[in-house]
Amino acid sequence: MYPMLKPALRRAWRGRGTVQFGVTSAHAVMLGPVDIATGSFLELLDGTRGLSLLREEARALDLSNHQVDTLIRRLTDAGLVDDVRSIGAEADALHNRPHALERHRPDLASLSVVHPEPGGSMRRLAARRAMRVQVRGAGRVGAAIAAVLSGSGVGHVEVLDGGHTEPWDVSPAGLPPTAVGERRDTAARQLVRRSAAGAAPRAAETSGSSESGAPGLSLIVVAPRDGLTVHAPDPRSAEPWITSGTPHLYAGVVEATGVVGPLVLPGGTACAGCLALNREEGDEEWTRLLSQWRSGRRNAVQACDLGLATAVAGLAAAHALSFLDGDLPASTGTRWETALPLLDWRSERITAHQDCYCGASGHTVRERASGADTAHDTMAG
């Protein structure tokens, strides 16, 4: 082991004998009591020394082997120690791509803060490279999500959409002005390639690939240009994903209102069918309204503010990456909404409906969390 204090966490003395690692309350850790010798020893934890050399240099500070081992164990248990040399063979492909690693240094730093175990940041970045995500929609929201996922190290990002790029599809975070007139799917593929830190991994590098050589879908992000499809998703379109157990996340903008979620874990959390049934019970006119909205004019340009669309895309991409990295973000079974001009995010928990075919209502909270972990392990592992 070559211990290194995580450089992403700023270090400062709170007072005599207490060191704080990290600035924000979400990840800050305090260590104490720390004497002068221990404080000097902390400076040696830079990843260049193995345990034997650390013990040898610590003796010059009057620290015993037991004190060194105890301190390193405390720091490791607190999530403050990284060990870039202990990651194993799964990250060899990343080490052989130094340019990509330079691009991903901020991502690695962030992952090291969020995931406490030594080497966890590199393992998760390597795992992203083997994953396949499908983004359904190449408008202001969908294209930006695809670009962020690709730029964050997801190795296989597909974008599905039809028609040709219109001037109002263009976004600084998504499709460029030069894409106007091109097929949307073609322009989106080019965007994904430009956003990536390097070439997509070959099939030989990817475990769990299908017979076609492509890995199974880890996640589908539903981000259509028509935000009504996210505000009121059609349960029929999600039936194949429920049947196959494919996690999917909704994101979009409708009439200056941004929506992120729910992240649906089939059989574990409420789905589009549950949402529809709950709305029908809560509003007897819902079905009548929805049929009129869906059959109305579709050639009108959507009310999709650029700043709001970019914020929605960023939040959705962050939630998607959190899920791919092994966590359950706040959009799991929950919708987050914000509207112009005040932009105050509000959450709404979606209740699993007992009459929905997805079966999520039959789970207790504990069973649902266990099912979510199983779905993630199956699709993203």
Layout of helices and strands, plus pairs?
Layout (H helix, E strand, L loop, with lengths): L3 E2 L5 E5 L2 E4 L7 E3 L4 H7 L8 H9 L5 H13 L3 E2 L9 H4 L2 H6 L1 H10 L5 H10 L2 E5 L5 H10 L4 E5 L23 H12 L21 E6 L5 H4 L3 H10 L3 E7 L2 E8 L7 H11 L3 H10 L10 H19 L9 E6 L6 E4 L15 H16 L1
Parallel strand pairs: 6-7, 6-8, 8-9
Antiparallel strand pairs: 1-5, 2-3, 3-4, 9-10, 10-11, 11-12
Helix pairs in contact: 6-7, 8-9, 8-14
Summarize the structure.
With 381 residues, this protein is of the alpha/beta class. The chain contains 15 helices and twelve strands.
Question: What does the model show?
Answer:
With 381 residues, the protein is an alpha/beta fold. It has two domains: 79 residues, Outer Surface Protein A, domain 3; 251 residues, Rossmann fold (3-Layer(aba) Sandwich), CATH 3.40.50.720. It is built from 15 helices and twelve strands. The strands form three sheets. A seven-stranded mixed β-sheet has the order 7-6-8-9-10-11-12. Strand 11 and strand 12 form a beta hairpin. Helix 6 packs across helix 7, helix 8 packs parallel to helix 9 and helix 8 packs across helix 14. The longest helix has 19 residues. The radius of gyration is 24 Å and the shape is elongated.
Key attributes of the depicted protein:
Rossmann fold; 40% helix; alpha/beta; Outer Surface Protein A, domain 3; 15 helices; three-stranded antiparallel beta sheet; seven-stranded mixed beta sheet; 381 residues
The biggest beta sheet is recorded as: 7 strands, mixed
Spatial strand sequence of the major β-sheet:
7-6-8-9-10-11-12
Q: How would you name the CATH homologous superfamily of the largest domain? A: NAD(P)-binding Rossmann-like Domain
Mean pLDDT: 89
Number of strands: 12
Spans of 5+ residues with little confidence (pLDDT < 50)?
364-372, 374-381
Task: Report the structural category.
Answer: alpha/beta
The CATH topology of the largest domain is what?
Rossmann fold
Q: Supply the CATH class of the largest domain.
A: Alpha Beta
Second rung of CATH, namely the architecture of the largest domain: 3-Layer(aba) Sandwich
- Name the overall outline: elongated
Distance separating the two termini: 26 Å
Estimate percent helicity: 25-40%
Cα radius of gyration in angstroms: 24 Å
Strand content: 5-15%
SSE order, one letter for each helix or strand: EEEEHHHEHHHHEHEHEHHEEHHHEEH
Number of domains: 2
Enumerate how many helices there are, as a single number.
Answer: 15
Oligomer: single chain
